[in-house]
Amino acid sequence: MRRIIVFLASVLLFLLFPSFEIKAQGFEVSAASAVLIEAQTGKILYAKNENEKRPMASTTKIMTALLCLESGNLDEPFVVDSSAIKVEGSSMGLVEGDIVTKRSLCIGMLLPSGNDAANAAAIKIAGSFEKFAEMMNERAAKIGMLNTHFVTPSGLDAEGHCSTAYDMALLAREALKNPDFEAICSQKNIKLSYGNPPYDRWLKNTNKLLTYYNGCIGVKTGFTDDAGRCLVSAAERNGVRLICVTLKAPDDWTDHQKMLNYGFGIVKNYDLPVPEISQIGLVGGLKDNIGVSLASAAKLSLTEDDFSKVQSVVFLDKFVYAPVKAGKVVGRVKYSIDGKEVLSIPIILSENADAAITQKEKGFWDNLFEKFNILKKEK
């Protein structure tokens, strides 16, 4: 009887509080799917239906812009394909015959969310939407976006075009590693020149968090009738970078502020313990050892609990051969949490080392003086 009462009580709690897990964390979100990750390690800090496949609207343009930036020749002018720019929805204002650059198209995608910009970039890079979609899906697979399938470069609704909150967080994490991408998506407004003939104009970012939220550095908004309001954001404070994603969120601006505040409240930038390594052996040099150091600071953004679990392992060459230059990688310090590697820092030589002078390289008088000393000692 007691078990039946406990079971009924549990069911009642579930019916009354379906989002109990979220409320237990002190907040709830309007989004159908959401995720918050720490950018450096990729650790999930908060999740709600994060692996549920949904249309993601114009947040798709994160991938389109990334591929465009990676394609090269960003500032080479060309004429847009007239058929590509004839598309519904948001636009950067391209018309037939306009002269643009790939960089301009990326700005047009990431700020005013131009569908014309995304389409024009896809045709320029791949020649067709179908081939560009193949490129998008190949890149997604490399990133680890296991539940994503791209069909359109713009994110307009199409059968099979879908992703998840978690996959979109992985995409944003990858895209923000590209300096050009980060530089563009973090701007509230950008002045650029395009047209025929090109003329100066300002494009405005649709991401209101750049104004509303302290530390926001991007990334991309999205909306279609089918997808609802979609938003991918990133923010950085005190060395901690967080990435937040909501799909089908009626109150996305508030959702992101709640989630980011939660993340910054539990994650800090920690100095990791550094193994005592100062030198390794030197063969064929003027001395027996040479100095080494870490190539970068050992820092990680972690929760307090994860920081207590950090372990490190040193992999270091026993020696190097002279001559050798400072900066040569001779090993690594690998940090892990619960057996999963979270950081790898190269160990490098901190100084140059010349080879020892051989007998042949010594001058005639040096050799003669050395022989004289040997004969003197033998007497």
Task: Describe this structure as you would to a colleague.
With 379 residues, the protein is an alpha+beta fold. The N and C termini lie far apart (109 Å). α3 (61-70) runs antiparallel to α4 (102-110), α4 runs antiparallel to α5 and α5 crosses α6 (129-143). The strands form 5 sheets. A 6-stranded mixed sheet has the order 14-16-17-12-11-15, with no helix packed on it. It has a 5-stranded antiparallel sheet with strand order 2-1-9-8-7, with helices on both faces. β7 (216-224) and β8 form a beta hairpin. 32% of the residues lie in helices and 28% in strands. The chain has helices at 2-16, 20-24, 61-70, 102-110, 115-126, 129-143, 165-175, 179-185, 209-212, 252-266, 304-307, 364-378; strands spanning 33-38, 44-48, 78-79, 99-100, 189-195, 198-204, 216-224, 228-237, 240-247, 267-271, 279-283, 289-294, 299-303, 310-316, 319-321, 329-337, 340-349. The protein has 2 domains: 25-267, Beta-lactamase; 279-349, D-Ala-D-Ala carboxypeptidase, C-terminal domain (Peptidoglycan synthesis regulatory factor (PBP3), Domain 2, Sandwich). It is globular and about 90 Å long. It contains 12 helices and 17 strands.
